[in-house]
Amino acid sequence: MDRKTKIYIGLFLLLLFSIVYYESSKPKKINWFPSYAKKHKIPYGTYVLRNDLPSMLFSDTEIEDVTISPFVFLGDSTKTGTYVFIDDNLNFGDAEFTRLMNFVDRGNDVFISTHRIEIDTFNIKTKTLFTTKYDENVFFKLVNKNLSKNEYSFDRRFEHRIFESIDTLNTTVLGITGYLDKENEERLGEEVNYIKYNYGKGNFYFHLFPEVFTNYTILKDNNSQHTASVLSYLSKSNTIYWDEYYKTGKSRISSPMHYLFSNASLKWAYYTALTGILFFVIFEGKRKQRSIPIISPLKNQTLAFTRTIANMYYEKAEHKNIAEHRINYLLDYIRTQLRIPTNKIDKTFYKYVASRSGNDIESVEKLFKYCDTIHLKNTVTKEELLKLNTLIEEFKNSTK
Question: Whole-prediction pTM value?
Fold first, then answer.
């Protein structure tokens, strides 16, 4: 080993030790990921709440963790109790929510705390509550006078949602929220953010501020009292089914590499090994590697072939066939890229496509209404074909 190689190895080792020292000595950043999982002790996990539930309110209540979907879990119609869902965003399928409704109809309860709830069946819609000033504090308060009268305030940015419309015949207001003007010490409005909806023999509880159940909230000051007050409406005599399936932070390790990169120490060990291999290749393979001849890859004629076939259709004015192909490719794009089934195209389909693609629901509905018009025509003009193509391209560009 010559002197030059020794110098390079020494510099590499110095750099490696410097990186290791820097990474081990710098303060660890706080992870504000909205997990809501019971195993996570990060600020937005629910480790404290899940472990303190028996001592907080439910000392004589059986608490069961559910790690499968509600559709599968409620396949057993003999189950009774209270099903608790807490997460940043919840999106139940139609069949799944029907089983929740049947579960409640038999005399059970379902508690759902999330930022967005839109249920047409119950005439429940939500919206964001905005303020025009920066020096206003948000407040939360329960309307029941027998519970804690203290107002709760949250000091971090979050999605402030309220109920835009509710079914007043079957709904009871349990909690309100709004903004407090610190300068003038006056309320700027009170809006509903916690309700009970009577359905059959049971009740749905809808709550729009899941942050109240996180480790950060419960361990800060005396906020646990407000959390306990929100949960005090739930029955203490029935089994509580604690959902761990619909959790943003649930375990999703699907490969060894995923586990490797989820641990900081293993990740840096992996990078160090790769760097060492790189240096080995540079210094050991420099004069040992034979030159590799450059072989031009075969040209991909697929695109040229596709263009030729398309021009044949276009020159023969078979606009109807081209339009049908464009629509089929659009549906295939939605199935493969947006992961949305296309066997039934209705308002629910429009809503899912709009939410996952970033388009507004009006433009999505306009696109598929025009596709229906094309299906019904025996012949399609050049202008109609161009309009269809423009609508599809605008949809895809907005999605990207």
Answer: 0.59
Check if the beta carbon of residue 176 is closer than 8 Å to that of residue 161.
no
Distance of CA 269 to the CA centre of its chain: 31
User: What does the block give as tokens for 114?
Assistant: 């999330």
Copy the structure tokens of residue 261.
Answer: 């990169």
Residue 215: what are its φ and ψ, rounded to 5°? -60, -40
Which tokens hold the place of 233? 């409406």
Beta carbons within 10 angstroms of residue 295's beta carbon: 6
Residue with the two structure tokens 């099903």: 83
Residue with tokens 């057993």: 76
Reference 162, options 151, 172, 177; nearest CA is 177
pLDDT at 208: 94
| Rg, C-alpha atoms of the chain | 29
Please state whether 253 falls in left (phi above 0), alpha (psi between -120 and 50) or beta. Answer: beta
- By CB atoms closer than 10 A (0-12, 13-18, 19+), residue 393 is exposed
Token pair belonging to 44: 């937005």
Phi, psi of 242 (to 5 degrees): -95, 115
According to DSSP, the residues that pair with 172 across neighbouring strands are 196
Residue found by looking up tokens 């015949």 in the block: 169
Torsion of CA 395, 396, 398, 400, to 10 degrees: 160
Give strand pairing partners of 191: 177
Measure Cα distances from 292 to 286, 289, 295 in Å: 13, 9, 9
Query: What sign does the dihedral 156-234-108-236 (CA atoms) show?
Result: positive
Q: How many residues are recorded in the chain?
A: 400
Q: Are 87 and 162 in contact (CB under 8 A)?
A: no
The band of 82, judged by pLDDT with boundaries at 50, 70 and 90, is: very high
